[in-house]
Write a structure and sequence with these properties.
Blueprint lengths: L14 H22 L1 H5 L4 E7 L3 E7 L5 E7 L7 H19 L13 H14 L1
Antiparallel strand pairs: 1-2, 2-3
Helix pairs in contact: 3-4
Length: about 130
Amino acid sequence: QNYPLYIRSVPTENELKFHYTVHTSLDVVDEKISAMGKALVDQRELYLGLLYPTEDYKVYGYVTNSKVKFVMVVDSSNTALRDNEIRSMFRKLHNSYTDIMCNPFYNPGDQIHSRAFDNMVNSMMMQVC
């Protein structure tokens, strides 16, 4: 339904800018999904790749089989990150999200408040920085 379940940004002083970037990128994700059409349904790999670059950031996307969208915004000056590393980060994120969904105390659609998910996201962010 295109509302965020979890947003994490570092540094926090530009958090509103990141919220805007994430929300605008959801439209690009929808466009890519509709452009792929039936081919996306048949694929097991749901990595959408680079959605769009901006002056300061690169925005990447990933969609699960249940149409949950993951968006990652990376500083464009970080040239050390390759496409396969971004793909593996999305897989880790997807696996952690699956673990949250398996929790009987989590109501699907609620904001994600999980210490394990936070720790996984923090470790990924430290790896990138």
